[in-house]
Design a protein that fits this description.
- By secondary structure, the chain is an alpha/beta fold.
- Helices cover 43% and strands 10% of the residues.
- It has two domains: 25-149, 3-Layer(aba) Sandwich (Rossmann fold), CATH 3.40.50; 155-220, Orthogonal Bundle (Helicase, Ruva Protein, domain 3).
- The chain has nine helices and five strands.
- Strand 2 (70-73), helix 3 (82-85) and strand 3 (90-94) form a beta-alpha-beta unit.
- It is elongated and about 60 Å long.
- 32% of the residues are buried.
């Protein structure tokens, strides 16, 4: 008789956004320094720029806790909501994207924040100099913002990231597994998160422990290996 196939359940897992769980390295040193030096900022409105998964939201969460800031998604911002969003005098605006943001609402927010001397921390995947903004005054205001960039991780931080992503899923990844993944997937935060998620799901589905052999099977059956 063929044994029944084990089902894998997508159990919720929390990714800690505390300062203690932030992995710092050369790629994010400037951004972390900015967060930790608040309120001694060069401007009351700052922009964090980096690829998906690079740690922008984690840093924004650290700052929001320290500053008592509200957090809102840029795509949900409306002109009517701007005064309430600035009620605490500090605001995080996540994922500013010119394709989805209400330009007039964002311009109103920047003006009101300046008038009230509120602190703003915005995150985006691309620098504002590349934004295609129709509202000229908003375009000028965004391009004048001080920008701090987060780069892709170096080897040491990338390995630590894989370990942390595993720990967030209650997975114990030994050095063989970590080294195998680090040397064969694209060195990006997104690739690491996807690889660890697939490894976790396959381990649950097959009822197998997380080993180098399982990692090899997972990468062989669907992920894109890094150039060798």
């Amino acid at each position: 008789m063929i044994p029944p196939r084990q089902l894998a359940f997508a159990l919720p897992h929390a990714e800690s956004l505390s300062r203690d769980d932030f992995l710092d390295g050369p790629c994010n040193a400037a951004a972390l320094a900015l967060i930790e030096r608040w309120p001694d900022w060069p401007s009351r409105a700052m922009m964090l720029v980096g690829a998906e998964g690079s740690g922008k939201s984690h840093l924004a969460a650290i700052w929001a806790k320290a500053a008592g800031a509200r957090v809102t998604a840029a795509h949900s911002l409306t002109a009517a909501a701007v005064p309430a969003e600035l009620a605490t005098g500090a605001l995080v605006i996540e994922d500013v994207d010119p394709m989805s943001v209400d330009e007039r609402a964002l311009f109103h927010l920047l003006n009101l924040a300046r008038e009230h001397q509120a602190f703003l921390l915005m995150t985006a995947r691309q620098p504002p100099a590349t934004f295609e903004i129709g509202l000229r005054d908003l375009r000028s205001r965004l391009r004048a913002l001080p920008v701090v960039s987060l780069a892709q991780p170096d080897d040491g931080l990338f390995r630590a990231l894989i370990v942390k992503l595993g720990a967030d899923r209650q997975m114990q990844l030994d050095e063989q597994v970590v080294g195998y993944l680090a040397s064969r997937i694209e060195r990006s935060f997104v690739a690491a998160r996807e690889a660890v998620a697939r490894l976790d799901a396959e381990s649950l589905r097959l009822g197998r422990p997380v080993t180098r052999s399982l990692a090899a099977d997972v990468l062989r059956n669907g992920s894109t290996p890094a150039d060798e």
